[in-house]
Design goal:
The complex is a heterodimer of chains A (309) and B (249). Chain A is an alpha/beta fold. Helices cover 26% and strands 28% of the residues of chain A. Chain A contains eight helices and 16 strands. In chain A, a hairpin with a 4-residue loop joins β7 (121-126) and β8 (131-137). The relative contact order of chain A is 0.12. Chain B has six helices and 13 strands. In chain B, strands 9-8-7-10-6-1-4-5-11 form a nine-stranded mixed β-sheet, with helices on both faces. A two-stranded antiparallel sheet of chain B has the order 2-3. The N and C termini of chain B lie far apart (59 Å). Classes of the chains: A alpha/beta (309), B alpha/beta (249). Chains A and B meet through α3, α4, β5, β7 and β8 of A and α3, α4, β7, β8 and β9 of B. β11 (175-182) of chain A pairs antiparallel with β9 of chain B, so a sheet runs across the interface.
Chain lengths: 309, 249
Amino acid sequence: MKTLVWVEHDGSAVKDATLAAVTAASKLGEVHLLVAGSGVDGVAKAAAQIAGVGKVHVADNAAFGHNLPENIAPLVAELMTSHDAFVAPATTTGKNIAPRVAALLDVMQISEILSVEGPKTFTRPIYAGNAIATVESSDAKLVLTVRGTAFEKAATSGGSGTVEAVSAGGDAGISSFVGAEIAKQDRPELTSAKIIVSGGRALGSSEKYQEVIVPLADKLGAALGASRAAVDAGYVPNDYQVGQTGKIVAPEVYFAIGISGAIQHLAGMKDSKTIVAINKDEDAPIFQIADFGLVADLFNAVPDLTAKI
Amino acid sequence: MKILVPVKRVLDYNVKPRVKADGTGVDLANVKMSMNPFDEIGVEEAIRLKEKGVATEIVAVSVGPAKAQETLRTALAMGADRAILVQTDDEVEPLALAKIFKAIADAEQPGLVILGKQAIDGDNNQTGQMLAALTGWAQGTFASAVNVEGDHVSVTREVDGGLETVKLKLPAIVTTDLRLNEPRYASLPNIMKAKSKPLDTKSPADYGVDTAPRVKTVKVSEPPVRSAGVKVADVDELVAKLKAMGVHS
C-alpha cells in the first residue's frame, strides 16, 4: 500500500504530530510525504530526512501558504490517484483538510486512529474516549487522521527520501487568509511536551496561576496547561486547555494542580505516563487515576516543590 | 439570506456513556438524549445573525429516527423558522450525511450552512468539511467568531496555538467551536409556538442518497482503566519519587 502523509509545518520545521502520522502510515505500507506551502524548500529537505520516507512531493505555491483546505484538498485528491491512503495528523489543520479530501474521493474518513489493527482495520475513540471502537473500512482508498499521542514519533534523521516537485493545484479563489494570533511561548508545545504543569480552578486567579504554576513549569522546562474551569474563569487563554474540548495530551509526566478531575479533563490527559495530582480535597476524582497523589494546600505545596525539585 | 442548520440527537453530554456488554456499541436505551451541544451553538449563531438582520430564514435539518423531531422542535423553540426531518433508523455516516445536506442545500439555496464541528457521540469532525467539498463552497471550521460582510463571511477559527481568521466567499460552510456563543434557553411561550411551526418529513431516498455504511464497527469496548497509584505524605516524598524517575530541574 502506498500512503501519502500530510506534512504539517510552520514554514521552516516539520511539526511533531506529523512524525506520529508517519509511524502510523508505515504500518500500512510505503510512506510518501506531501509538503505544501510557500517557500518550503527547507521543510522538504527536513522531511526527506525522516526515517523510512520514500518520495517527498513538494507543492510550492503561494496558494498553499496558509493551509486553506479549499486550495489544498484538490491538490491532495489529485495526488491520491497514485496513492492508496491519505494520512494526516489529527491537529486542527489535519482535521480541517482531511474530510474535504475524503469527500472529494468519495471515501468515508476514519478519524483520530489510536492503532492500526489490519490493512483496513483501526481503533478510534468515540464518546470523548469513553469507548473505543474497532472499525473496518470497505472503501477502495483510505483517509485517516492520526491521534499524535497514540503513536511513537518517527526519527527525524536517517531517512533518504527523494524530493519531487508537484505542479498541480492553485488558488480556488473562494477563501483567503486574513491573519492569525498565535500565542508565542518560550516553552514546549502542549501536545508534544515531555512534562506538563496544569492548573485548575482552585488557583482562584490569573495572578496565582502566574505565581504558583509558572515557576514550577519554568524549573522543569515544562509546557503550561489548564482545566476548562480555569480557562472559563479567565485565568489563562483557551489554547492552554487540556481536555475533551481542548487538547489531548500524553506527556511523560503530567502535574494536575488544583484540578478536581472532571470527566472532560480526564479525557484529555489520562494517557499520560505518570500523573501527579496535588489537591486539598482528598476525595477529588483526580486521585483515582493519579500515580502520585499529594493531599495538600497547593499554595504551600507547589512553591515548596518548586524549591526542592 | 437563508441559513441551514443541521442538528443531531445524541446522548446527553451529562450522561456517562456505557458500553454494551455484547460490544456492539454504547447503550442508548432509556437514557436522556439531547441536541448535540456544538449544533446548539450553530442554531444560536443562526438566530443571532437573523436578529442582526443578516439572515431572513433559518431552516433546521436533522437526519435520524422519528424521535429526532424533538431535537428539531428544540431548534424551532430557540428560534428556527421551519424544520426538515430526514427520517431513518439507520446510523448515517458523515459522508452520507454530507450528501443529504448537499441535496437539501441545492433545493434551499442557503447563504450559510452552520454545523457543529463534531457530534459528541461519534466524534468524527467531518460532516461540515465534507459538505464543503461536495458543494465546492469555502469552509470556516472551529469558528469562534462569524461576521457576514457583503458577499463574504469572515470566520475566526480556533487553531492549535491560537486563533486564525479567514475570509470566505458566500455561500459558505461554518462549523462551530465552543466559544462562539452561549446558546439561549427556549422560553415556555416559544416552546408552545414551536409546536405549530412547519416540520417536513423526508427520507434519505427522497434525496437519492445511499446510506449504507462504508465503515463497519467490528466492536466497541471500554477504554483501558487506569488504576490509582499511591498517596505521598508530603512534598519531600513527592520530590524523592520524581527524582527517582529522573524528573528534576
